[in-house]
Amino acid sequence: MTEIRVGVFGVSGKMGSQVVRAVGEAPGMTIVGGSDIREPRETIANAQVVVDFTHPDAVMDNIEWCLSRNLHMVIGTTGFTEERLARVRELCEEHPQVGVVVAANFSVGAVLMMKFAELAAPHFPSVEIVELHHPNKADAPSGTATTTAQRVAAARAAAGLGPVPDATVQDNGARGGVVDGIHVHGIRLQGLVAHQEVLLGTAGETLTIRHDSFDRASFMPGVVAGIRHVVRNPGLTLGIESIIGL
Ligand SMILES: NC(=O)C1=CN([C@@H]2O[C@H](COP(=O)(O)OP(=O)(O)OC[C@H]3O[C@@H](n4cnc5c(N)ncnc54)[C@H](OP(=O)(O)O)[C@@H]3O)[C@@H](O)[C@H]2O)C=CC1
Ligand SMILES: O=C(O)C1=N[C@H](C(=O)O)C[C@H](O)C1
């Protein structure tokens, strides 16, 4: 069997360097090149699958470059909006043989945390999200918190829940950001990697769902599964839920 040829955008970054190691250790795939912002992308033109862990400002241009060359992609870079996803869908339609995975979080624990939050959402009128990350992170709220809030909001709406109860009339920013009606609070602290709590409340009880990535190794099984997935599944796959059977 021929090995899947993998290239990495953001190869020297915190995630990119882990991807190089994980792909090197995974059977059936091999690294053929990588580039960072100041390096020519041509070093990875010979790849079949390109993994992108770069920067919200860089990822769309990388996607255009890869899809115009019919290269499959596994994308972990965050900062995706509906407009950005619409452009990725458009590109996938223009290149129907190409597979693309876009996932805000490749860790199995985080994917389960989002699923549990979605399951709990209809049963709790109150819900807020706290995401905690290392201080070098460019985007807030995190992609994971944004996705969680969107899924929780959709589950609440489907269950007929109204707005989250909140009497605040004077807010100098302490109530955080709001995604689809859900308050999201971002903490940036040295010593952290990637962590999230979903706090839910109803009469007389609360439920806290917490996930911690203490090491970026936590994202690697999901990335490797994504690489195997895109070579066999053309089109856009959002999140790794379907890939890992959730
Ligand atoms: N989906 C998931 O599971 C996860 C997603 N992420 C996301 O991945 C992204 C990267 O995170 P992280 O590795 O921590 O960040 P780092 O800053 O450590 O790494 C980013 C790397 O990308 C490089 N880079 C920037 N622009 C380009 C470009 N145009 N082409 C190629 N390389 C480029 C940077 O180079 P230079 O330093 O020279 O600027 C750097 O080496 C973030 O958006 C983060 O949110 C992170 C963890 C998990
Ligand atoms: O920047 C990070 O580190 C992470 N980014 C992703 C996000 O924005 O959700 C995934 C994880 O939280 C780590």
TrEMBL record:
Would you name any one GO CC term? cytoplasm
Q: Which residues form the Dihydrodipicolinate reductase N-terminal domain?
A: 4-106
**PROSITE patterns, sorted:** DAPB
Q: Binding positions for (S)-2,3,4,5-tetrahydrodipicolinate?
A: 134, 143-144
Give every Dihydrodipicolinate reductase C-terminal domain span: 109-241
Q: Which SUPFAM superfamilies match?
A: Glyceraldehyde-3-phosphate dehydrogenase-like, C-terminal domain, NAD(P)-binding Rossmann-fold domains
Q: Any idea which positions bind NAD(+)?
A: 10-15, 76-78, 103-106
Q: What is its main location?
A: cytoplasm
Q: In which pathway does it act?
A: Amino-acid biosynthesis; L-lysine biosynthesis via DAP pathway; (S)-tetrahydrodipicolinate from L-aspartate: step 4/4
Reactions catalysed, as given in the entry:
(S)-2,3,4,5-tetrahydrodipicolinate + NADP(+) + H2O = (2S,4S)-4-hydroxy-2,3,4,5-tetrahydrodipicolinate + NADPH + H(+); (S)-2,3,4,5-tetrahydrodipicolinate + NAD(+) + H2O = (2S,4S)-4-hydroxy-2,3,4,5-tetrahydrodipicolinate + NADH + H(+)
EC numbers, comma separated: 1.17.1.8
Tell me the compartments it is located in.
Answer: Cytoplasm
Q: Name one GO biological process term.
A: lysine biosynthetic process via diaminopimelate
Q: Which sites are catalytic?
A: 133, 137
GO MF annotation, one: NADP binding
Alphabetized UniProt keyword annotations: Amino-acid biosynthesis, Cytoplasm, Diaminopimelate biosynthesis, Lysine biosynthesis, NAD, NADP, Oxidoreductase
Q: Show the HAMAP family listed in the entry.
A: DapB (MF_00102)
Name the protein family: Belongs to the DapB family.
| Assembly information from the UniProt record | Homotetramer.
Return the NCBIfam families for the record: dapB
Entry function = Catalyzes the conversion of 4-hydroxy-tetrahydrodipicolinate (HTPA) to tetrahydrodipicolinate.
Q: Write the protein's name.
A: 4-hydroxy-tetrahydrodipicolinate reductase
- What gene is this protein translated from? dapB
